[in-house]
Each structure stands twice: as C-alpha cells, then as structure tokens.
Write a structure and sequence with these properties.
CATH superfamily of the largest domain: 2-enoyl-CoA Hydratase, Chain A, domain 1
Organism: Rhizobium altiplani
Order of helices and strands: EEHEEHHEEHEEHHEHEHHHH
Mean pLDDT: 91
Distance between the termini: 51 Å
Largest sheet: 6 strands, mixed
Pfam families: ECH_1
Number of domains: 2
Low-confidence stretches: none
GO molecular function: lyase activity
Protein name: Enoyl-CoA hydratase
Family: Belongs to the enoyl-CoA hydratase/isomerase family.
Length: 250
C-alpha cells in the first residue's frame, strides 16, 4: 500500500513529500497522522534543514481532503481539525530550518502548511489563496495568525475575506513567498538551499535562533538582544561550537 507521506533523510538534510497527487495532495486523517510521524522522525534525527514538498505539478497541497471529510462522523471531523492544527504547530516549532518547495496551487490548508515553514519557494505558475470564505468556512490551521505575521493584517484580511487567489509574482510582492524559482525544478532548488544551510551551521544554532525569533517577536528590542546574547553564550559552550571552532582553526 502506497504511503501518503515519504521522508528521505541524507545526513543533515531531509525531504518530506506529500504523495497524494490523485487527491491534489489533500490530507485526510491517515495522511496527517503519517505527516506527524515523519516530522517526529525528523525531530529525533540529525537533520538541520528540511524541504517539504509534494508530488506532481498541479497542487502543493489542497488542504483537507473534502471527499474524506464527507464520510467522517462529527467526532472524526473534530479530530481532523485537531490533527491539522497540531500539524501546522509541529512544523512551526520544529527545531530545524523548514523550506516549502511549492509547485502548482497552494490553497487553504496547503497555504497554512507553507506559512508554518521558515521559507517558501515556488514556481512562476504557482497560485496562493484562502478560498474557505467562499464556501462558508474559516481557515482553522493557524492561517489567521501566521498570515498577518507574514504579510500584515490588511493584506491578510483582503486575502481571507475575498478568497481570491494570488499569482506567484503577487505573492512575492507582498512577502508571502521569498523566492520564485525559474529553473524548472523547484524541489532541487530548495534541496540545494537546504544543503547550503546545513553545511554552514549546526542544529543547536538553528533550534535556538528559531525559539528566539518566536519568543522575541512580541518583546522589546533590548530584551530580544539580551536573549540572543545569552543564547550565543550557551552555543559557545556547546560541544558543537568547540568542535567546529577547532576544525576551522586547523
């Protein structure tokens, strides 16, 4: 039986692939559970940078599998919402750098997954949006919090209230994505970026930096600077820092 989620780890770089192209890479409960299991493997591994991508060129992820949802009872629907929220929170809090490699449509819950990543790279033909309002539902996977943080409250309101998709150029212009890859292979491009990052740093530094960015977002600059200073001291005393310092000095 084909697994809905594939995880490949090579040294300090991981690639997680959503493999449900026949369902536009949408996620049912089984797929989300497999996704979470893969992320837990990443957490326990030596991975420093993780690429999150999907099979095919039509859709990065269409969010929830609506066909599956129609077969769920009320308890299973509630569980699905809980699972999806847990998924985006887990990606957001993962102690590794995460890169979303996006090809095709990135809508609804798929965009919420991408927003939980540290970096978003797409193809020139990718599209982005929150269409939930057009069918009378709401984004429940953290998009109402992460989108305003990424693009500002005014733009997030417009995206979510009107449900109109954005082109790749429009998404980059407002800061929703960081890079449009013109090479024709966005997955390879993202992997090279992950490999470069992993070769330049260590897991402890990435973990601390991500934690400080999250906790420091709502604090005064002086407090944030002190947190970074204390974190730097902790890193300088770690075995990884000492090992790398001696290696660079030789």
């Amino acid at each position: 039986m084909k697994t809905p989620i594939r995880l490949e780890i090579e040294d300090t770089v991981g690639v997680l692939t959503i493999d449900r192209n026949d369902r536009r890479n949408s996620l049912d409960n089984e797929a989300i559970e497999a996704f979470l299991s893969a992320l837990n493997q990443v957490r326990r591994s030596s991975v420093i940078a993780l690429v999150i991508t999907a099979e095919g060129d039509r859709s990065f992820c269409a969010g929830s599998d609506l066909k599956a949802l129609k077969t769920y009872n009320q308890e299973e629907v509630v569980y699905h919402t809980h699972l999806f929220q847990t998924l985006t929170e887990t990606i957001d809090e993962l102690p590794v750098a995460t890169i979303a490699a996006i090809e095709g449509a990135c809508l609804g819950g798929g965009l919420e997954i991408a927003l939980a990543c540290d970096s978003r790279i797409c193809t020139p033909t990718s599209r982005f949006g929150f269409p939930e309002i057009t069918v009378g539902v709401l984004p429940t996977g953290g998009g109402t919090v992460r989108a305003p943080r990424a693009i500002g409250l005014s733009r997030a309101r417009e995206m979510m209230l009107f449900g109109e998709p954005l082109s790749a150029d429009e998404a980059r212009e407002i800061g929703l994505i960081s890079t449009i890859d013109e090479s024709g292979d966005v997955r390879s491009f993202a992997r090279k970026r992950a490999e470069k990052l992993a070769s330049q740093t260590n897991r402890d530094a990435v973990t601390l930096l991500k934690a400080m960015l999250v906790t420091g977002a709502g604090t005064a600059p002086r407090v944030g600077a002190m947190m970074a200073y204390l974190g730097d001291i902790a890193l300088s005393r770690s075995s990884n820092f000492l090992k790398e310092s001696s290696s660079n000095a030789s």
